[in-house]
Structure to design on (81 residues):
C-alpha cells in the first residue's frame, strides 16, 4: 500500500513537472514565432523603402540636386571584356 502511494505521488509530481515544462516550451515557441513575425515585417518595410529610394523619380531628383545630367552621345564608352 505504501509503495503504491509513493508511486502515485511520484507519478503525480512527474506529470506536474512535465506539464510545466510543456507550458514553458509553448511560451518559448510563441515568443520565437513573434520574433520571426516581427523580423519578417521589418524586412518587408525595408524592401519597400529600398524600392522607393531606387525609383527612377527619386534617383532623377537626387541627380538634379547633385548637378548630374544624362550623358550626351559619345560620352559613354563601353569596354569589351
Amino acid at each position: 500500500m505504501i509503495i503504491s502511494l509513493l508511486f502515485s505521488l511520484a507519478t503525480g509530481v512527474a506529470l506536474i513537472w512535465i506539464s510545466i515544462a510543456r507550458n514553458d516550451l509553448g511560451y518559448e515557441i510563441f515568443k520565437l514565432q513573434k520574433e520571426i513575425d516581427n523580423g519578417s515585417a521589418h524586412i518587408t518595410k525595408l524592401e519597400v523603402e529600398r524600392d522607393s529610394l531606387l525609383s527612377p523619380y527619386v534617383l532623377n531628383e537626387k541627380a538634379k540636386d547633385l548637378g548630374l545630367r544624362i550623358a550626351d552621345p559619345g560620352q559613354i564608352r563601353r569596354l569589351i571584356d
In short: Helices lie at 2-53, 56-65. The chain has two helices and no strands.
